[in-house]
Specification:
single chain, 0% helix, 4-stranded antiparallel β-sheet
Length: 208
Amino acid sequence: GPASGAQLEYRSVDYPGATATEVFAVNDLRQYVGAEREADGSHYALLDQGAGFQRLDLTALGTHQSWAYSINSRTDVCDTFIDADGQQHGYVHHADGSIETIDFPGGNNTQGYGVNDRGTVIGVYDDGSGVSHAFARVKGRFMDIDIPGGISTTPLSVNDSNEIVGQFEKNAGTTGYGFVRDAAGHVTLHQAPGSLPESTFFISANNR
């Protein structure tokens, strides 16, 4: 909770005409990303660079739906879009307007979940059997980062030291563990003190 006596300020954010608006991330420049949902159920990625939420221009991707989960301090935005065939792809939208499509080699339904200031991208993809796997793209090279001994690894945030945090499930029907993976690939698992077994996960990590 907040420090005793701390005064917190907040404001509501709603995209005009949307049935729902979500805010997912903020960078060091106080720029925000998120998504809005239309009445027909379609989602569109949003970016606020100080003048209010605007739809992120992803027309070059031919996308029908999109989200924006992560933004780094270079105003690179990372997330997922759905193409006309219903397939998911990750993307990075750069500050200059250029766009990279992120697809794990040989995989299907790639989803981008995070990008740091070094350009490292994290996310998940499906193999040929439809099983989900975690990946990181570091210096342009894709690698599988599944944690051994479990049924699911979901990386949700990466900081500028290439430390990755997320959710690791060992057993079906549980939330699992929060994990921290350092830049060398070493992993530690965590449970919140006093919590039920396998009921913890990590959503975000900053540079400290």
